[in-house]
Amino acid sequence: MANHKSAIKRIRSNNAKREENRYYGKTTRNAIKVLRNTSEEKEAKTQFPKVAAMIDKLAKKNVIHKNKAANLKSKLAKRVNSLAK
To answer: Whole-model pTM?
Structure first.
């Protein structure tokens, strides 16, 4: 157990941040899943900027690595563009 007040506070704040990161991470993963399963071009083109912004925010907050964010966005862009053909 923590012996200092600052360590106890750090534990509390880490737990709060962890919960927030889990929530936003799961929400983004669900949005990615919905976008991947979309078969209509118009709907996918409207969803893609929103999902890309969610991914960028996670990378900015270091919830996910910036390279993982780039890979996710790249794969999603390919998927959206393939629907146009």
So the answer is: 0.88
